[in-house]
Amino acid sequence: PDLCLTTGKQTVYRNNFWLNGVAGSSSPCHNDPFNNMLVQLHGEKVVTLYDDKSSEALYLASDTVQKNTSLIPFADFEDQASGEVTVDAEKYPLYHEAGKKTQYGPVTMRPGDALFIPFKYYHWCRARGASLSVNWWWL
């Protein structure tokens, strides 16, 4: 996409196809070290974003290789009909104090929809069924 070639350093780092075969397939909440343009090609995907200042409230996995990934199992707390998430307040109090205030979405992506995910913004995705997405990461 033009946005990937006309912003930042104009260097496309990588593009990926994301294929989900069943409803409920999800990614953990994480951030990427690049700007991200996500385009939905087939099926539906629900995406929720958190801004780049949310790391403490998202309980990042500090003792693993994936330090960019939240320990909160958002998919376990999701109402699959509405996409709304009700995180356990006793187990994750910082999320309720600060994290929820930095939330954007959830949004449902359908074929032809595109979503810009800024550098270091946290996000998690859940497929509503068989779906195919493509994304571009760029600097």
Notes on the protein architecture:
The protein has 139 residues and is mainly beta. The chain is 7% helix and 36% strand. The protein contains two helices and eight strands, in the order αββββαββββ. Strands 1-8-3-6 form a four-stranded antiparallel sheet, with no helix packed on it. Strands 2-7-4-5 form a four-stranded antiparallel sheet, with no helix packed on it. The longest helix is centred in the first third of the chain and has 5 residues. It starts with a helix and ends with a strand.
What's a quick, concise take on this entry?
This protein has 139 residues and is mostly beta strands. It has helices at 2-6, 93-97, and strands spanning 12-20, 30-31, 35-42, 45-50, 103-109, 114-117, 122-127, 131-138.
Key terms:
four-stranded antiparallel β-sheet, mainly beta, 2 helices, globular
Oligomer: single chain
Order of helices and strands: HEEEEHEEEE
| Cα Rg | 15 Å
What would you call the shape? globular
Percentage of β-strand residues: 35-45%
**Largest sheet, strands/sense/barrel:** 4 strands, antiparallel
Distance between the termini: 14 Å
How many runs of DSSP E, i.e. beta strands? 8
Percent helix range: under 10%
Extract low-pLDDT stretches.
none
The average pLDDT is 84
Number of helices: 2
Q: What spatial order of strands do you see in the largest sheet?
A: 1-8-3-6
User: From the helix content, strand content and strand pairing, which structural class follows?
Assistant: mainly beta
